[in-house]
Design brief:
With 336 residues, the protein is mostly helical. It has a single domain, classed as ADP-ribosylation/Crystallin J1 (ADP-ribosylglycohydrolase fold, Orthogonal Bundle), CATH 1.10.4080. Helix content is 61%, strand content 0%. It has helices spanning 7-24, 32-43, 63-78, 83-95, 104-114, 119-122, 138-143, 148-160, 166-184, 190-202, 206-218, 223-230, 250-263, 268-277, 282-297, 304-307, 318-333. The radius of gyration is 18 Å and the shape is globular. The two termini are 24 Å apart.
């Protein structure tokens, strides 16, 4: 029987996501050469500097982690996943103008929710397939790591509120499933990891599941070579992206986060650096990769000086996030 996950893994997942997000958002949307310099001259020294484009001091995280935090908060307060409650929380973040770095697809769904459209009908339909559902799904792995069918259902439902394309649900299952897997396996091969995640995703999006298995051939490649393949995964051969780097398309961004983690599973900070170095939607790739790495390695693997700067406009700081992770753990295992 697999060992029970530790409280430090739950803490590591949430803090790992938020710090990856806060680190990546400094250069979100920047081209690869800027992000490579950021990694080489700032992140290698763990001294990220302020950026003109992002009007917050280091430590502010974005919608990726705000929405993940609210998903976890809803579960902790209700003791179950309730899509109506979570939908209300998403609307509140937007309507009260607390959201940071809003995604267009999510915002369009929020407008419909705010008008009274039920959550089952409010999400943006295919072929829109951004990563907004996957970026916030790591907490589902904490909630249901030991119940795969519930994990798949909840990962799908929480994403369907805003994103109805099956690939979006597949990405949500992939990230939640990655967290669930590493919580239960202290050592593993990439093949076993990817095979299990692909099987879970298969129930939602067979197309996405097959792309996950392709990572078996790509994880040994150097970063630039892997990027060339992953950035095109799931797209038509003649597709031309508007992004210089990893785009917000759910398939490529989820695959890149998986690659970043599997390349250096024993090193949280190196995983974050890999997620960011290719440019593009790097707050999201670093948030997803950071959640996996933090869940696997635990809180002690995360740079404490940087983590203690986490906040959301001066609220939901480091220790409040730890408390939320602890409450989830205690509720899951019914400890005092």
């Amino acid at each position: 029987m697999n060992p029970k996950p530790s409280k430090e893994q739950y803490r590591g997942c949430l803090i790992g996501q938020c710090l990856g997000d806060a680190t990546g958002c400094r250069v979100e949307g920047y081209p690869a050469f800027v992000c490579k310099n950021y990694v080489q001259y700032e992140l290698r020294n763990q001294q990220p500097r302020d950026r003109d484009r992002f009007p917050f001091p280091f430590g502010q995280y974005t919608d990726d982690s705000q929405l993940a935090r609210e998903l976890l908060s809803s579960y902790v307060e209700l003791g179950r996943f309730d899509p109506d409650d979570y939908a209300r929380r998403i609307v509140s973040l937007f309507s009260e103008n607390r959201i940071v770095g809003r995604g267009r697809t999510t915002e369009a769904a929020v407008e419909r929710l705010a008008q009274g459209v039920p959550w089952l009908e409010a999400g943006t339909p295919p072929p829109s397939a951004g990563n907004g559902s996957a970026m916030r799904s790591a907490p589902v792995g904490l909630m249901f790591y030991d119940h795969p069918q519930q994990l798949i259902q909840v990962a799908h439902k929480q994403g369907f509120i805003t994103h109805q394309d099956p690939r979006c649900s597949g990405g949500s299952v992939a990230i939640a499933g990655a967290v669930a897997f590493v919580l239960q396996n202290q050592s593993f091969s990439p093949e076993v990891f990817l095979d299990q995640i692909s099987k879970w995703v298969q129930e939602i999006s067979p197309e996405f599941a097959s792309e996950i298995l392709n990572l078996n051939q790509w994880i040994q490649l150097p970063i630039d070579s892997a990027f060339e393949l992953i950035s095109k995964a799931g797209l038509e051969p003649d597709h031309r992206s508007e992004w210089d780097g990893i785009s917000p398309f759910v398939v490529g961004s989820v695959l890149w986060s998986l690659y970043s983690f599997l390349r250096t599973p024993q090193d949280y900070w190196e995983t974050i650096c890999t997620a960011i170095t290719v440019g593009g939607d790097v707050d999201t790739t670093a948030a997803m990769a950071g959640a996996m790495s933090g869940a696997y390695l635990g809180l002690d693997a995360i740079p404490l000086d940087l983590a203690k700067q986490l906040n959301d406009r001066g609220t939901w700081k480091y220790y409040q996030l730890l408390e939320l992770a602890d409450r989830c753990y205690d509720q899951k295992f019914k400890t005092e």
